[in-house]
Amino acid sequence: MKERFDFICSFGSTCLGAMSLRDAGLRLASFPFDWMRGIPFAKRAELVANDFAGWFEAKDLEYLELKEKHVHDSYRNRATGAVFPHDFPHGVPFEEAYPEARGKYDRRIARLYDCVRRSKRVLFVWVECPMEKDSPADAEVAAARALLLAKFPGVDIEFLVIDRAPDDEATAAPVRGDGFWRISCGFRKTAEQGPDGKGRPWDMDTAPILKVLTGFEAVDHRTREERRRHEAERRRKKYAELGAKSALGFVFAKLGVKLCKRVMNRLRRRGVDLAAVFEAQLRKD
């Protein structure tokens, strides 16, 4: 039997939490902690309890140099440690990009409070960062829950903490605490990601996490129009990733990417230095 909640939301610690909830069909809108990282568990509870004071002030945001190229510029909040890697388009001056990003987070914060206050039972989901051990101790979870219960009287708030299992072992049975679940889950890097085939730290196989999330369900309180808009926006973003404008174009683009990956991986297994091949082709052109 599934645990049923009125509202389920990612609490962090990285984008992996929101991605997993989305893929499990439990993320029905965008919320403040979905696409950022860098804030400890306890600090997040304090931010929610204090109306996100100092969360996204322009004076606190500093540009963050990254080793790899991204489609967005990253900024870090000096006051809270929050890192925002998906909110500032690359090459757009901060003064131009900030108002839109600020408005987006203001809407997400208002939506979070509205969803929690309209609910009787709420679940916040924390998925450990793939790159570092940052899961909270049981005492921290209990303290955060007490803080949020005081913030939202009459709402039963619970937590699901998903720890990355040592050496990516199989998922263990969940441990039930007072107002929270803790599960050791064997999620791991996906295969054949990145130029060396080893995978980047954030390219994770979410299948084990999704299996855990099948034990939970959320009520969809959205109107038919809200659901229609959300689905249309989801499709638009999905197509845009591959430069497609329709479902058929997306299918062909996806097949092309898969075929390209298979060919490149086969060449790697045969010892072909693809970097040298591409470099030689560029010199030739």
Which short descriptors sum up this protein?
2 domains; alpha/beta; 20% strand; 285 residues; 3-stranded antiparallel β-sheet; 5-stranded mixed β-sheet
How would you describe what is shown here?
The protein has 285 residues and is an alpha/beta fold. It has 2 domains: 3-221, no CATH class; 222-285, no CATH class. It is built from 8 helices and 12 strands. It has a 5-stranded mixed beta sheet, sandwiched between helices. A 3-stranded antiparallel beta sheet has the order 3-4-5, covered by helices on one side. A hairpin with a 7-residue loop joins strand 3 (61-64) and strand 4 (72-77). Helix 2 (41-49) runs parallel beside helix 4 (138-151).
Short description:
By secondary structure, this protein is of the alpha/beta class. The protein has helices spanning 15-23, 41-49, 94-117, 138-151, 207-213, 224-240, 247-269, 274-284; strands at residues 3-5, 7-12, 61-64, 72-77, 83-89, 121-127, 156-164, 175-176, 180-185, 188-189, 204-205, 216-218.
